[in-house]
Design goal:
Helix content: 10-25%
Shape: globular
Oligomer: single chain
Largest sheet: 5 strands, mixed
Number of helices: 5
Strand order of the largest sheet: 9-8-7-10-11
Number of strands: 13
Radius of gyration: 16 Å
Order of helices and strands: EEEEHEEEHEHEHEEEEH
Length: 207
């Protein structure tokens, strides 16, 4: 599902979706031709926004600290990961994000977590951070400002920026989970591929 614009108590927010975009399809069709499973799908570079300079977004994390993306310019890459407890796929991918954050911090990669749900409580957010061991800045994006600035369309989107805030990758973390299926291990680790490419000074094979 993509984000849907919903009106809640007079304010406009983004509801959590599930499907991410960024790789190869993982579909199975029924006898009627209807898809029963769906994984990451390919996008064109134009659709993904790869190559553009993103705005220097200002945000306040849940600890009340005001930040800008440019505050992270000393890192070699920045991962902005959309995540929320109310999205089933987002919950499944949270441990992977936590593991990758710990792995790539040693290589000067910063992780910023963005929760697009206008309905999740502070207690739910705190629980997600604690259970999954997320250490990077965690931001509530109830009005969709950050999502719009980065071009995010799904609640499991990850965006990779270089130190100059050029968008290098937007799409799936990997293909382990999707609608109607779960694999024991991913076949393609798109975020890992993108980060490794950036750290080598190259462009990802699947941007």
């Amino acid at each position: 599902m993509k984000f849907r614009r919903v009106v809640l108590l007079g304010s406009v927010g983004l509801a959590c979706g599930a499907l991410v975009a960024g790789g190869e399809p993982a579909n199975r069709e029924s006898s009627t031709g209807e898809s029963l499973r769906q994984g990451p799908k390919s996008m064109t570079v134009a659709e993904s926004g790869v190559g553009r300079l993103v705005p220097d977004v200002t945000f306040t994390d849940i600890k009340g600290k005001s930040r800008k993306l440019s505050d992270l310019r000393d890192y070699r890459a920045i991962v902005v990961a959309f995540t929320c407890k109310s999205c089933p796929l987002s919950r499944k991918f949270a441990p992977t994000l936590s593991r990758l954050e710990k792995t790539y911090l040693k290589q000067q990669v910063a992780f910023v977590y963005v929760n697009p749900s206008p309905r999740e409580t502070v207690a739910e957010v705190d629980e997600s951070i604690r259970v999954h061991g997320l250490n990077g800045p965690y931001v509530r994006d109830r009005d969709g400002t950050i999502a719009r600035a980065l071009g995010a369309t799904h609640s499991t989107d990850v965006i990779v920026l270089d130190a100059r805030r050029t968008l290098i990758y937007r799409g799936a973390i990997d293909d382990q989970y999707g609608f109607g299926y779960a694999l024991n291990a991913p076949r393609r680790e798109y975020l890992v591929e993108a980060l490794d490419a950036v750290l080598r000074g190259e462009r990802p094979a699947a941007p």
